[in-house]
Every structure is written in C-alpha cells, then in structure tokens.
Amino acid sequence: MKIPYHKSYHSSKEKEYVLDAINKNDISGDGYYTRQVSALLEQKFGILRAYMTTSATHALELAALIIDIAPGDEVIMPSFTFTSTANSIILRGGKPVFCDIEENTLNMSPKEMENKLTHKTKAIIPVHYGGISCDMDSIMSIAKKNKLYVIEDAAQSVHAKYKGKYLGSIGHMGAFSFHGTKNYTCGEGGALLINTEDEAFMEKAEIIRQKGTDRERFLRGEIDRYSWTGKGSSYSPSDILMAMLMGQLEEMGKITEKRRFIHEYYTDVLKNKALKENIKLVNIPTECESNYHIFYLIFPHELHRNYVMTELNSRGISATTHYVPLHSSKMGKHLGYTKGDLRITEKVSQGLLRLPLYPDMTRQEMEYVGQNLIDIIGEL
Ligand SMILES: Cc1ncc(COP(=O)(O)O)c(C=O)c1O
C-alpha cells in the first residue's frame, strides 16, 4: 500500500465557484470572491480585518512593513519554524532573535522569550505549531508590559482556538496560510489579519498590498482615480484562487472533523506503546482546540526516529521529519548562532516524526500506518 504524507481535500463547490469567478470576468485581485472570503474570515474568527494575500509568507512580509521593521530592530521568534517567519524580518534589515520552545506544545516558551528582550526588541512572532496555540495569555501580557507588537504566525493554525478565541485574532496582527499542504487550501494563498483599532494599520495594509496605491479606496468608490501614495508591493491573490478557497472554507467544519477522527485514531492506537517506549505524542492542552494539522511522535533518540522513518518509508508510508531549526541552519550560523544554543528545539527536531494525515484517509490506510508503526517500534 502507498500512503502519501498529504493529499488535498476537494470540496463539493470549489469547481463551481472557480468557473463562476472566470465567468464573472473579474479574475484579478479583490474581486467578488476575495471580498466574500475576507468577510467570512472576519465574521467566523472575530478578526477586525482580513486582507487576503498570495501566501502566509507575504502576509508576514506585509506585517513587517506595516510596523516599519528597520535595521537595528530585533524580533523574537522560535527557531522551530519555517523560514518565512524569519525572512519577513531579515528582508527589512531587522534581526530575528531565536528563543527556545516548550516540550509539551513545541511552541515558544514565554519565559525564554522574556529572557531575550532588549531595548531593541520591537515585536514578537509566536508560531502556533501544528494547530495548537502558544501560551497567548503570557505572551500578550509580556508584550503589553514592554510595549511590543505581537504578530501571530498562525500559518498552520487556521480554525484552531485558545481559550475560546480563534488563533490569528489575539495578537495585533496574524498570518494564515492556505498553501496546498494546509488544512484548507487554494494551492497558494494566505491572509494578513489585523486586530488593532488603529486605523493606521488598515491604511498601510491597503496601500502596501496594492502596489503602493490607493486602489482599495477607488474600489470602494471613495475616489475617481487611484495613484501612487506610498511604498508597496503586490500581495493580492487572483479571484480564481479565492473562489476555490471559498469552497474549502465553507467545509471547514467537515474537514476539521475528518482530521480529528484520524488524529484520535492514531492517539488511541499508539498511546500504550508510546508510554512504554518513552515516545511522546501530540499533546493538546485543555485551553486549546486544535485543527489537527499535524500528528507527530517524538522519539528519545534520533537514531530510533530515523530507523522508524526508514522502515515506514520502505513499507510505502510517507512519514517525515520537520523543520531544521533556523538557528542551526546556514543562515542561523551567519546570524551568530551555534548548535547547542537552543536545547529543547534541537532535541525535538532530532526526535520528531510526522505521520500521514489527510481528510480522505481510509480506515484501511489508518490501520496500515498504525499496525506497521507498532510493529516497527517493537523492533527498537
Ligand atoms: C509556521 C509557518 N509560517 C509560514 C509559512 C509560510 O506559508 P506559505 O506557504 O503560505 O507562505 C509556513 C509554511 O508552511 C509555516 O509553517
């Protein structure tokens, strides 16, 4: 049997919406479906403004531009994340400062983060790993005390909650991803979320996102012509993509439910064996509601993780590792970091293995993964 790591789910309406977007003869940015999707995100997630972008990478870049990250500024983030979190700051000449994570959630440790604060710190980017929230109460309170911006990197955590609030709606700004590997997708897509009442944030977002113009005001009928009003780039996605995304977002509940079922199956099948062998499984703290983006195991030894992964792969199961911590990458070394700087991050990255998880996984496929994994762990 061949089991891929990921397979996109396709909703019943997405083709119809895409065709409709094409027929509407308005396939560039900010058309009918873009407005529908923004409104849906704002209403469903309690977000003040959702600006659709071509990726979470671009949403993070936009956020860094909005708060004017400049040379000399430091931004604290975990090292256990995707390159885009750090690139958004590097591109503006700022410095990403990496802090360690907590072993129970693989998210930024508020205490470690606080230890990294300096008079140059301007913002914090907490990354919600795999659909599980950071300790947002602690992070927001440290940020408030030190007058720092908080940009939630919720690329993987659309539709997940912390203490009843949707992720992406808690920090000053947030970023979502709708990339092909994410739970709800249009291939390439994202959103910048703004939760502060400060009008300057919205104004900047509108102008920067629209190539430095006031085209958004023009689209709202507020002005006759649009022109160059500030710095900017091109971050708005085609309405065709937003049409597909609309179809997916309408089925968000169904997709999450299918993922939950598989996640819980893995937990049930593996928990006894994992406990006996000192292997950690995903832990969802009581204050969090997951979107079940990732199911992982953490082995106490890298050699064991590699053995299990190779064996699963040889049986057709695409289990895989995750991030090479940013501080231990070539760029991280260039920034002055060395191996050993972030103990938990390194330990987690060496032991972590992700299992296949996609909404239309069959019972037979789930059982094949579960049984093979138990057999292979038994050989360790
Ligand atoms: C934590 C995190 N941030 C940002 C991104 C970038 O997302 P996108 O592919 O939409 O640019 C990813 C992608 O996987 C991610 O995992």
Describe the structure.
This protein has 380 residues and is of the alpha/beta class. The chain has two domains: 14-249, 3-Layer(aba) Sandwich (Aspartate Aminotransferase, domain 2), CATH 3.40.640.10; 252-378, Alpha-Beta Complex (Aspartate Aminotransferase, domain 1). Helix content is 41%, strand content 13%. The chain has 14 helices and 13 strands. The strands form three sheets. Strands 1-9-8-5-4-2-3 form a seven-stranded mixed β-sheet, sandwiched between helices. A three-stranded antiparallel β-sheet has the order 7-6-11, with no helix packed on it. A hairpin with a 2-residue loop joins strand 6 (161-162) and strand 7. The radius of gyration is 21 Å and the shape is globular. The structure holds pyridoxal-5'-phosphate. Pyridoxal-5'-phosphate is lined by residues 55-57, 81-82, 84-85, 127, 153, 155-156, 177, 179, 190.
Unreliable residue stretches: none
Largest sheet: 7 strands, mixed
Strand order of the largest sheet: 1-9-8-5-4-2-3
Mean pLDDT: 97
Tally of DSSP helical segments: 14
Order of helices and strands: HHEHEHEHEHEEEEEHHHHEEEHHHEH
CATH topology of the largest domain: Aspartate Aminotransferase, domain 2
The CATH C-level name of the largest domain is: Alpha Beta
Distance between the termini: 23 Å
Question: What is the correct CATH architecture of the largest domain?
Answer: 3-Layer(aba) Sandwich
Relative helix content: 40-55%
Ligands bound, unique: pyridoxal-5'-phosphate
- Gross geometry: globular
| Estimated share of beta-strand residues | 5-15%
Structural class: alpha/beta
What is the C-alpha radius of gyration, as a whole number of Å?
21 Å
Number of domains: 2
